[in-house]
């Protein structure tokens, strides 16, 4: 059964170094997996920002956000990449994973990565991202990948390539060892109109 690898990129700019790192990590993991047919999907949270904000207020995900959450929670391996904002992951990144059910990623192998302007922010991987996915009971690979601006130049690319390769091997090993998710047929779930839900709630309180 074909394995699925999902990379979540929370970059806001275009082009985005966060998306570039997500693509690079996904390609490396795909290269190291034992299944050459491993599917790779990259989710850019920038494109889902409006639906994420609306979901935080209403509690109802839009269709694209629902598909993204389903892809993440059904993945055999996850790559999570965020830009560093004010010494931590971005609000968009956190808001997306706040929507994901706290039990849905239990046991899922995860590679964490971040981008920033300077290497001094690299500890965000250990003091913010690793605790987040540990709370979600994911299996976070030992090697986390941080890419500062200087890492994209000719002088730092070799060091970055080494970190990418090591982390990719670790995630690929966990993905290969994990049983693939069975294909679950789509089931039509009836949607109860919000007004009808409110009416039923009012009756129950009488």
From TrEMBL:
<keyword id="KW-0288">FMN</keyword>
<dbReference type="InterPro" id="IPR051814">
    <property type="entry name" value="NAD(P)H-dep_FMN_reductase"/>
</dbReference>
<protein>
    <submittedName>
        <fullName>FMN reductase</fullName>
    </submittedName>
</protein>
<dbReference type="InterPro" id="IPR029039">
    <property type="entry name" value="Flavoprotein-like_sf"/>
</dbReference>
<dbReference type="GO" id="GO:0016491">
    <property type="term" value="F:oxidoreductase activity"/>
</dbReference>
<dbReference type="InterPro" id="IPR005025">
    <property type="entry name" value="FMN_Rdtase-like_dom"/>
</dbReference>
<dbReference type="Pfam" id="PF03358">
    <property type="entry name" value="FMN_red"/>
</dbReference>
<keyword id="KW-0285">Flavoprotein</keyword>
<dbReference type="InterPro" id="IPR023932">
    <property type="entry name" value="CE1759_FMN_reduct"/>
</dbReference>
<feature type="domain" description="NADPH-dependent FMN reductase-like">
    <location>
        <begin position="5"/>
        <end position="152"/>
    </location>
</feature>
<keyword id="KW-0560">Oxidoreductase</keyword>
């Amino acid at each position: 059964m074909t394995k699925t690898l999902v990379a979540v990129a929370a970059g806001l700019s275009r082009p985005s170094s966060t998306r570039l790192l997500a693509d690079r990590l996904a390609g490396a993991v795909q290269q190291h997996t034992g299944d050459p047919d491993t599917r790779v999907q990259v989710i850019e949270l920038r494109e889902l920002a409006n639906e994420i904000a609306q979901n935080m207020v209403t509690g109802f995900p839009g269709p694209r956000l629902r598909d993204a959450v389903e892809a993440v929670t059904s993945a055999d391996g996850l790559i999570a990449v965020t830009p560093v904002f004010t010494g931590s992951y971005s609000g968009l990144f956190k808001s997306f994973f706040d929507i994901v059910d706290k039990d849905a990623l239990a046991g899922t192998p995860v590679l964490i990565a971040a981008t920033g302007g300077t290497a001094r922010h690299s500890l965000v991987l250990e003091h913010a991202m690793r605790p987040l996915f540990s709370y979600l009971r994911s299996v976070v690979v030992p090697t986390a990948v941080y890419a500062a601006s200087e890492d994209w130049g000719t002088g730092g690319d070799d060091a970055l390539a080494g970190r990418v390769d090591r982390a990719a091997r670790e995630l690929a090993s966990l993905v290969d060892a994990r049983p693939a998710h069975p294909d679950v047929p789509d089931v039509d779930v009836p949607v109860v109109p919000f007004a009808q839900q409110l009416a039923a709630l009012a009756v129950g309180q009488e």
